Amino acid sequence: MKWIGKRQSDNVEDRRGMSSGGKTLVGGGIIGIIILLLNVFGGENAQMITPVLEQFNQQKTTQTESRPLTEEEKTEGAFVRTLLAFNEDVWTQIFEENNLTFEAPKLVLFSGQVETACGGASSASGPFYCPGDKTIYMDMSFFEELRTKFGAKGGDFAVAYVMAHEFGHHIQTLLGTSTKVRQLQANRNEAEANKLSVALELQADFYAGLWTHYNENKNAMLEDGDIEEALSAANAVGDDAIQKKMQGQVVPDSFTHGTSEQRMYWFNRGFKSGDIKKGDTFSEVH
């Protein structure tokens, strides 16, 4: 992916290397894996992180130590700031084209654990968006987990896909989609509520593809293999792929994010169409 020398966003807070005092929520070991599977690309589900983690593993800490960032972490930070700027620029354009007002989200890079307006979370929760503070939270160690534990190809565009997906949840917050889904879920049974969650997540995948389309036109960023990296990441985090790997069977009624096939399809639909009006997953996902 071609990104060096491009604009970097100022809407990033880098907390890596910092340890926070007070209450922290740590989902280590088996519990951490469970939370990772439940909340990967968490979106609105990030609000559920706190009660689930508190049920299993809550502790106090008074750590105050910090360390300087490594050169690799500094490069990662520059890359993430550039990705965020790419997303800001594309979505500003899309909103202007549709006579809408855009508001940029914040992004927090952290290590280990973090406190958010949606509650506390550990790195095991995976990247997520918190609508309470309109902020994307990312622990970069997730991408190594994605590659080694879930079989994704890895690479810089896998990071770009995840970032664009989480940014998509911010777009859903701005457009009121997330609020409508929560209201509908309150009156549905679990299986029906899960279907709405799937549609919400697949729309975020569509938005990630849409961003890729626009950003390629603006910045000619793509290199050979980039789209394959995104599709590999989408394939790895499909509900069916995760359930089959972790429990040996697939339970469709429990899906909350969509199958591997669905996730790849909706990313590709956004990428190939370049049309925000093609992203009505709520009408087309059954």
From TrEMBL:
Domain of life the protein comes from: Bacteria
Molecular function as annotated in GO: metallopeptidase activity
Membrane topology type: Single-pass membrane protein
Keywords: Coiled coil, Hydrolase, Membrane, Metalloprotease, Protease, Transmembrane, Transmembrane helix
Source species taxonomy: Bacteria, Pseudomonadati, Bacteroidota, Flavobacteriia, Flavobacteriales
GO CC terms: membrane
Organism: Flavobacterium gilvum
Coiled-coil intervals, chain numbering: 174-201
Stated name of the protein: Metalloprotease
Keyword Transmembrane on entry: yes
Database matches in InterPro entries: Uncharacterised_pept_Zn_put
Transmembrane segments: 21-41
UniProt entry tagged with the keyword Transmembrane: yes
Compartments reported by the entry: Membrane
